[in-house]
Every structure is written in C-alpha cells, then in structure tokens.
Amino acid sequence: MASFIIIGAGIGGLTAANALMNTGHEVHVYESYPKLKPSGMGITLAPNAFKALSFLNFVEDIKKVGKPLDSFQIRSETGNLLSAIQSNENITMAFHRADLYVSLFQRLPNGIVSFNKKCVDFKQDQNGVKVTFADGSHTKGDYLLGVDGIHSMIRQKIAPSISPQFAGYTCWRGISKRADILKSPNIAMETWGPNGRFGIVPLRENQIYWFAVTNAAENSKRMKKYSKSDLVLHFEGYHEPITQIIEQTEEEAIVRNDLYDLPKMNRYAYDRILLMGDAAHAMTPNLGQGACQAMEDVAVLSMCMKRQLPINEAFVAFEKERIKRVQKIVDRSRLMGRVGQMNHPVARKLRNGIMTLIPDRLRVKQIDELYQI
C-alpha cells in the first residue's frame, strides 16, 4: 500500500484521510493551525454528499450530529414564497461545522493529524514527494493530496496563474441559540431583498445558523466597521424573525468575510500530487455545495483507485471525471449569487415574478442534476 501526505485538516482533508485509511493506505495529515480547535458556523450536506459518504461508509456516524431538513425555501423580504424544494426521500442535514469536524476527526487514530505544520515547500521525483514545513522539519511520502483550501499553498506553487476572484459581496455569519422563535424548525430558507440576502438554517440543540450577504467592494472599510446594531438596521423591514435572530446573537460570535471562488482549472493531477476540495475548485456558498463537492471528490478518488490503476493514473482518471461536473457547479453557484444579489428594483421585481412561475418539475430536474454524482 502507498503512503499519502495530506496537506490540510479541514472537512475535505479529514474525509480523505478516513477513506484512505479504510483501504489500508498509510496516511498522515498536516495542518497549519496550531492545535485542534473545532470552530466555525453552520454547514449543510445535501443528498449528493450523503451518497458520497454512503460509498465511504461514514453515513451513520455523521447523521448523529446533524439536524434533518424538510425543505429549502426562498422568500422575498416581505415573506412571500418565491421557491421551495422538498427533501422528500433525499437526505439533507444541517450541522454545526465543529460537530461535523469532530465526528470526522474522531474516526482517525491518534497521531494521524499533526498541527502547527505549515507547508512552505514541496518537491516530487520518481521516488515520491518531500514536504518542507515552516519549522524546518520535513516529511516524505509516495503521494501528496493538496486539500488546503482556497488559498492553497500547494496550488499557488503548482498552478501560480490561478488565484481567488472576488464575488462582489461580503457575508456575515453567526449562531443564535434561540431556534424556538422559528415557526418551522426543520426548514432552511433564504430571504432575497433590496439590501441583500439573509439565510436561516436550524441546527441541533436549539441553535440557528444564519448568514447575511450584501453587495460590497472588496476589503470595504465600511463593511469592516459594521456592528451587530448596524446589521439589524441593514435588514430592518425584512420579515420576522430576521432582525430578532441577529439581536439574539452575541456580537463577538458574528464573523464577516468577503466571498471568493476560483476560476476554472484545467488540471487537478500533477503526477504524484492531486488538488482536491477548495484548493482545486473553491466556489461561492450560494448552492451550499463546497463541503459536498469535497466529499464527492473523496468518493470519486476512492472509486478510481479501486480500478487497480497505478495511483498517479487514478489521479488522472479522477481529474477527467471531476473537472466538468465541478466547474458546472462553480458556474451555477456564481450565477445564483448574481441573481440573488440583484439590487435594481425593477430587476428584483422581474426576478421574483419569474421565480414564482417556474414549474415544480423544472425545479426538481435542476436539483436532481445537482445531487447526481
């Protein structure tokens, strides 16, 4: 069996480590963060993620820490329903990112993940891959998986022409501990209005994950200064319980980030090195597919490796199977953001009217395409 170096201990890196260990490979994960500190906001896993996890035999462990969602809705700022997708027989669940992270981390034996190991260089030859860390230490392995996120050091060195591109909007996120104010505790929704979008995702243990997205300049000084009270004023006039959710969130628990994605990459496989997850195809969160696609990556790589191909050829097979599908989702997510962030009143009115006229069968078809691995 081969030895794998995995750079990045996020959701994608931990999923890959579990999958490779389950098939008998030697694995070690290196994370630049100084220590294990589960954190983050909310995350949704759609049916395609559960199909991937089912192939990897992870489903039952993961389901224990998630909250099932019955449907996803899009509403106007006044509360009028614009679109709705029912979960039906498909599994869709919401998670606190920390719970999902711990569930994946705890499946791994002690010592598999090393923290405070920032990769600063790597070299490959016919014998394997050597990685150098910021502390001066080194490690060697047969293959390297770059799963180190949108700002991937691995990608920056191996494909320097590819860099994150600003989506045109910024996002605040928070966790409120008063899910009892929701009328429908198993429905996730987005509200689209003149001041941007507001998302509500119920979690376990009476929590709500929420996000607020508004058009902004990159690195906007004004947006950096926004306080909780500024956010309440920004979404004043939107339907209940949007401003109440913001008010019930501790100010220090609200985080803000500009949103980015990556332009299309024509390669993920570079002989003994493979880019995966956000390092290869970071997308805006408009479809909730970032983590889902990272999990799909792992399932597809596992399938390719089961064909008994040499591993570098399995990497190429993975690349051929993933690029077209992933890029379609990146593009679709980008388009969804543009539509959702329309700020011209006439364009918004026209958009809302069209959305209410889309037949259910067309919505279902679009969703089925998204969820099909």
Automatic annotation (TrEMBL):
UniProt superkingdom: Bacteria
GO MF entries: FAD binding; monooxygenase activity
Keywords: Monooxygenase, Oxidoreductase
Domain FAD-binding per the UniProt entry, residue ranges: 5-333
Keyword Cytoplasm: no
InterPro entries: FAD-bd, FAD-dep_Monooxygenase_BioMet, FAD/NAD-bd_sf
UniProt-listed NCBIfam families: PRK06753.1
Name under which the protein is recorded: FAD-dependent monooxygenase
Source species of the chain: Polycladospora coralii
